[in-house]
TrEMBL record:
<feature type="signal peptide">
    <location>
        <begin position="1"/>
        <end position="21"/>
    </location>
</feature>
<protein>
    <submittedName>
        <fullName>TAXI family TRAP transporter solute-binding subunit</fullName>
    </submittedName>
</protein>
<keyword id="KW-0732">Signal</keyword>
<dbReference type="InterPro" id="IPR011852">
    <property type="entry name" value="TRAP_TAXI"/>
</dbReference>
<dbReference type="Pfam" id="PF16868">
    <property type="entry name" value="NMT1_3"/>
</dbReference>
Length: 324
C-alpha cells in the first residue's frame, strides 16, 4: 500500500474513533454553509470546508451561493442555514439591528465557531487604464463593489467617499465584475475578499492588471474611520505585484446557528482547528485559520461547542462570552 494511502487511512481512523464517541442522536442529517458569489474567496473556502467536514464526519453537506457576510448573518440567525461565513463589520451591524437587509432585527442567534482570515480591501484596474493609485481614479468612474450586501459593498463605497473618490456604483458577482472590467464596461473593481482572490488570479492570466494599494496617509484615514486595520498584501500573492501592497483589512469568522447541537459544532471545530494543512490545501487564506486568532472575535457570542474545544485546548473563552 502506498504511503499516502496509509496516511489517509490513519487520518480517517482517527476522525472516526473521535466521532463515534460522540452522541450523534441530535445531529442533523445534513447541513449547508452560506458563502458568497462565485469567483470570490468565500465560495472557494466555504465549498471546500463544507466538503471536508461532510467527508470526515459522515454527514451530508455543501455550500450555498449567497449575497455574502450580511446575508449569511441573517440566514444563520433565522436557522435557514446552519452555518455561514461572515466578517466582523457586517456581524456587528447585524447584531446591533442595523443590517440593511432587516433594519431593527437584532441578529443575536448567530454564534462564532473559529477564525478564518483577514479580508483585505484592494482595488484592481486594467493596466491600459493608466490608473495606478486611488487618487488616479477619475471622477464619475464606474466601480464594481461586489454582490449587494457583501462586505465590499457595505464598506468600500464609504471608504472611497472618505478618500474623496467620485464614482458610479455597480454590483455583481466577482466573476461577472472581473469580466466587465476586462471588457472595459467598468473602470475598476473594489475587491474585499481573502487572498488570493480567484477572480483577480484569473484576470491577470488573461490580461495585464494593476493591483492598487493605499498610501500611508490614505490607510491612516480609513483605519480611523472604519473597523479595519492596516494590512500588507505580500508581493508573492499575485503575478502583477512586484512589491507588497498596503491596504486595510477586516477579520472573518465561521458562524453557526446558536441552536445547532453542541457536540456537532465541537466536532466541526476540532476537525477544522486540528487540521490546518487540510484547510490550506482548500485555500491559501486558511493559513490564518488557526486557534491563536480566536482573540480577533470581539463581536459575536461563541457557540458552546466551539468554546468547549478552545477551552479544552488552552484558549480561554470566558463564560460571559458564550451563548447560553
Amino acid at each position: 500500500m502506498k504511503t499516502s494511502a496509509v496516511m489517509a487511512l490513519a487520518f480517517a481512523s482517527t476522525v472516526t474513533s473521535s466521532v463515534v464517541a460522540q452522541d450523534r442522536s441530535e445531529w442533523p442529517s445534513n447541513f449547508t454553509v452560506g458563502t458568497a458569489s462565485q469567483g470570490g474567496t468565500y465560495f472557494a473556502y466555504g465549498s471546500g470546508w463544507a466538503n471536508f467536514v461532510a467527508d470526515n464526519l459522515d454527514v451530508s453537506g455543501g455550500a450555498e451561493i449567497t449575497g455574502g457576510p450580511m446575508q449569511n448573518m441573517a440566514l444563520v440567525h433565522t436557522g435557514d442555514l446552519k452555518f455561514g461565513l461572515t466578517t466582523m463589520g457586517p456581524a456587528q451591524e447585524s447584531i446591533d439591528g442595523s443590517s440593511p437587509l432587516a433594519p431593527g432585527m437584532k441578529m443575536d442567534n448567530a454564534c462564532a465557531m473559529f477564525p478564518m482570515y483577514e479580508t483585505p480591501f484592494s482595488v484592481t484596474a486594467l493596466s491600459s487604464s493608466g490608473i495606478t493609485s486611488i487618487s488616479d481614479i477619475p471622477d464619475g468612474a464606474t466601480i464594481g463593489f461586489g454582490p449587494a450586501g457583501s462586505t465590499s459593498d457595505t464598506y468600500f463605497p464609504r471608504i472611497m467617499e472618505t478618500l474623496g473618490v467620485d464614482f458610479e456604483r455597480r454590483n455583481g458577482s466577482w466573476s461577472d465584475l472581473g469580466g466587465q472590467l476586462q471588457d472595459g464596461l467598468i473602470d475598476v473593481v473594489a475587491f474585499a475578499a481573502g487572498i488570493p482572490i480567484p477572480a483577480v488570479s484569473q484576470l491577470e492570466v488573461q490580461t495585464d492588471v494593476t493591483i492598487i494599494g493605499m498610501t500611508k496617509e490614505e490607510a491612516k484615514k480609513v483605519t480611523e474611520e472604519f473597523p479595519v486595520s492596516e494590512f500588507m498584501i505580500p508581493a508573492s500573492t499575485y503575478q502583477s505585484l512586484s512589491e507588497p501592497s498596503r491596504v486595510v483589512s477586516m477579520w472573518n469568522f465561521a458562524i453557526a446557528n446558536c441552536d445547532v447541537p453542541e457536540s456537532f459544532v465541537y466536532e466541526i471545530t476540532r476537525l477544522t482547528m486540528e487540521n490546518n494543512d487540510k484547510m490550506v490545501s482548500i485555500h491559501k487564506a486558511a493559513q490564518n485559520s488557526v486557534p491563536e486568532n480566536y482573540t480577533k472575535n470581539q463581536v459575536l457570542p461563541w457557540h458552546p461547542g466551539a468554546a468547549r474545544w478552545f477551552n479544552e485546548n488552552g484558549y480561554t473563552i470566558e463564560e460571559a462570552n458564550i451563548a447560553q
